[in-house]
Amino acid sequence: MQQISEYNRRRIRMGIWFSAPAVIVLLTVLAYPILASWVLSFLRVYFAGQGLSFRFYGLTNYTELLTNQLFREALLRSIYFTLVEVIVVTFLALTVALLLNHPLGRHAFFRVVLLVPWALAPVANAVLWKWIYNANYGILNQALIGLGIIDRNIIWLGSPVLALNMILLADIWKAVPFIALLLLAGLQNIPSHLYKAARLDGANAWQQFQHVTLPGLKTTLIISIVLQSIWALKVFDLIYVLTKGSPADSTVLLNYLSWRVTFSNLDVGYGAAIANVLFVLMFILSLVYIRALRPRKTKEKVG
Amino acid sequence: MISYKHQLSRFFVRMGLAIFTCVALGPVIWAVVTSLLPLTALTSRPPDLNPLNMTLENYGLVLDSSRGLFSGLINSFIIATFTSAVGLVIGSMAAYALARLNMPGSSLILMMILATQMFPGIVIAIPLFLVMSRMGIVDTHFALILVYLSFTLPIVIWILKAFFESVPMELERAAAVDGAQPLQTFQHIVLPISLPPLFATGVFVFIEAWNEFFFAIILTRINVKTAPIAIAEFSGQYQTLYGQMLASAVLASIPVVFLAIIFRRFILEGFVEGAIKA
Amino acid sequence: MATLELIDITKKFGAVTAVDGFHLKVEDGEFVTLLGPSGCGKSTILNMIAGLEDVTAGAIQINGKTVNALGPFERDVAMVFQNYALYPHMTVEENIGFSLRLRKRPKSEVQEKVQRVAEMLELEKLMQRLPRELSGGQQQRVAIGRAVIREPSIFLFDEPFSNLDAALRIKTRGEIKELHQRLGVTSVFVTHDQEEALSLSDRIAVLQAGRLEQYGSPEEVYLRPATKYVARFIGTPQMDFFSGEFIDKEGLRYKVGEAEIPVPTLTRLPEAAFDAGVRAEFVSLGQKGFDATVRLVQPVGPFTYVTVDWQGGSVTARVNGVSHLKPKEHIKVDIDPQGLLFFDRATSMRIDIL
Q1: What is the pTM of this model?
Q2: Same domain, yes or no, for A10 and A116?
Q3: Are B164 and B146 contacting, i.e. CB atoms less than 8 angstroms apart?
Q4: What number does CATH give the domain C4-233?
Q5: Nearest CA to C253 among C244, C262, C242?
Q6: B268, C131, C210, C295: which has the highest count of C-beta atoms within 10 A?
Q7: Span C207-227, pLDDT tens digits
Q8: How far is C106 from chain A (nearest CA, A)?
Q9: Do residues A96 and A151 share a domain?
């Protein structure tokens, strides 16, 4: 016979009222659409006159995905893009974080420097790089010609492989600051007495890095890799502003493809199917990484 | 005596920091410089960077109301402010409920929140677009704010929940003993102590909402074009007007960069703690 | 003014029982202490009295009315927390007046009452300060002021001195006692410091692992502890115990090893086995008694506690003033039979043998 005191009863009641608005919003704008997206992918949607009509399509949208060459290429490109971005960004961000953790780098100025690329709108970033990559007047060409590295202007966004990688470069430039901040926080969380102990044990700088820094950063590194991969898969603004998918659809990535299929080609069901594939991809990624995080925790408790 | 090795490493660190600063700020500075030069200076080879040529004419041209940037800025401001304000109000309440008020089903909600960080916007954009066009609310501020809440609310709740959990339980108990109802405790005790993270989160949401592009192009047509859309259009329509193109990008970025710099301490601390706790 | 009664209180956290079948009755105006080590459930009980924790089973009655379902404010209790829990963003004045402002009392009333409380606790000069600008002792007085202004039926104190240094503790102890004498409000005080309990309380409830061991006045728990646990917990230094047996040899004696201590108060030979305990003030060193070797000499100002090894193990004697004994010296230790307390070896309960 447990009697709940008025104090706790009130708190539970308030808890429900307090969280209600947020829960309602999230259910409407998040939960419902996610479910709807799955339903849509099994339909073929027609725009008939003023409205829409739906016809059940079964798995046709998905089988179409598998046979569609554009989809396959976009998938491969997305994977390539994500892989390269995660590796390069992590490496660069770690370097920056280490620099900023050094006594010389502790000044507030450097943190401001970090925040500027982060705060820029991805669209603004895209415009910026569009200008830099401009074939005739962009500074990249001007600088390279001036330094004698090339003798003619390169059309950076004109050839398939090059264009994709230039987009990659622009995204890397924007992504490094935030990840660097994350890693910097992780670095600062490593207790300094661990370094002192290592130094007393005779470890040099590289060994200290190997045995104190890297293990201490493990969780933060994993988190930043997860975040980075998810953001890389979501790339859109850069493609929209820089290439719109050209030349010859060579810069079309999954997210962009889904959007184009739905809103330009008006094949809503198919677009939803692509979106769901992207969703599943990210979901699996997150699961893999969460699993990578968990065993470490239990090991810590036992050890 | 600083050893030679030590001096060498300091040299490398200084080099590294210098390179980092140039690479990080270089493009931005170049963008600003470009925006201050007339077209003729930019299209001559090599570009004529004479400071005497600098002018604000690009900015003037770009803010001409027919170009859509000015109204874009206003729309972005409205949407970002409301998203931030509404997000803070209902998000902080939900965060408090999850942190303190023994809500049934709280772990489920937390899972949901974690999950929202891990999927592409396109998944919800398509159904939402369909529903909203049927309801006729496409191209309204309301629609965009609502959708922006979908990805900012989880962040608000996540960060604030962690903070509220760090407020000592004793404080709230003392308030209860003094006669405060939970709402009063929240209002008079918890919120006033939480101003820094509240601010930081609000600024962060503002920046995210302001910079958002994807949902904006899907859900707006003519009336509610935001600043990012205006810039994107510019870069398509007037792409040979380089100076103006960059002026528009700079203008649309000034507010958020400005906010980020002013509130940097809040953002850096708040973020970093939130990320670690995740 | 109020009476408080806890009837068969049980508190479970999931599978763990923190408090089991606890009974307590506090009379009007009494100062009662819940005493015990960390984790014995005393703070849990206090929170249940306050209404901040739910009761798993049992009833809490204030003035004869069951208040289980009421919140802390409705029960008319006020509490002083271990870490003071002062509202960090409010000044001293705002902290104290908070409960009145919540009830929308007129400004003049709030001001007047806050002023009176401040004077009582000597806080007038600190009214505009923020908690972080105050010392530990000052913060505590503000916390007390916040409770006092409520004019509650019951005061609750949750180990309020644990964050103060030794000298301040003793000073504040005196202030609390004076406050109680002045206001006469029924009070329940929680602490693990037995000295504090002895000096402040009308009655002490000694707890172990969620159960009540003894409930009595300071004199009772000190001189007539109900169990070995209470005997060991109360008193500085700790009571010494030894195992021996009763024998009948020219009168009833307690035999420890080869030593035999006469026990004049015994009337007959007990049947069960008993351990004995004695406090340092009943142990003396000198020329007569049992052989012993000095182990430790600890001066504490007015006394010196000398621990010696003898046949019964080790025992501590209280010597007046300064002792010149050194470790490893041989001396004789004598135990005053008046000070012997006997505890049933099986049940640990003390037996009153007349």
Answers
A1: 0.82
A2: no
A3: no
A4: 3.40.50.300
A5: C262
A6: C210
A7: 998 889 999 999 999 999 999
A8: 26
A9: yes
